[in-house]
Amino acid sequence: QVQLLESGGGLVQAGGSLRLSCAASGRTFGSYTMGWFRQAPGKERDIVARIRWSTGSTYYADSAKGRFTISRDNAKNTVYLQMNSLKPEDTAVYYCAASSTAYSSNYQGTYNYWGPGTQVTVSS
C-alpha cells in the first residue's frame, strides 16, 4: 500500500525557513513525478514544485522560484521542500503527491497518491 507522509510543518516568522519532508513507501517511485501542493483557506490547491524522480528535473511555481528548493533522496525514498524567505502568504496546508503518468504535470488530477498534509503558518 502506497503511503506518503509529510512532516516538518509548523509556525515560523516571516523571513524564516522550514524544510518539509515527504516519506514515500509501498512501492518504488523511480518512474514517478513527486509534487508539493498547497492549499490556503478559501483557496484552491495549487502546485508549488515538482520533481521527476528518475531525472531530478524540477519545476517551480512563480511564487516559489528563488525561495523554495525541491529535492529527493533515493536512499531514503524521501522528497524534500526547502522553503526560505517565507512570507505570510505562504501560509497553507502543504501536501505531497505522487504521479505515475509518463509526463510531469502541474494538474493535481494526474497525481495518484496524496499525503494527509502538513500545516505551515508564517506570522508577520
Helix content: under 10%
Question: Rg to the nearest angstrom?
Answer: 13 Å
- The computed structural class is mainly beta
Q: How far apart lie the N and C ends?
A: 40 Å
Mean pLDDT: 96
Q: Could you tell me the number of beta strands?
A: 11
Give the H and E element order: EEEEEEEEEEE
Q: Choose one word for the global shape.
A: globular
Question: Low-confidence parts, pLDDT < 50 over ≥5 residues?
Answer: none
Number of helices: 0
Quaternary state, please?
Answer: single chain
Largest sheet: 7 strands, mixed
In percent, how much strand structure appears in the residues? Answer: over 45%
Any chance you could write out the topology, listing elements then pairs?
Blueprint: E1 3-7, E2 10-13, E3 18-25, E4 33-39, E5 46-52, E6 58-60, E7 68-73, E8 78-83, E9 92-99, E10 113-114, E11 118-123
Parallel strand pairs: 2-11
Antiparallel strand pairs: 1-3, 3-8, 4-5, 4-9, 5-6, 7-8, 9-10, 9-11
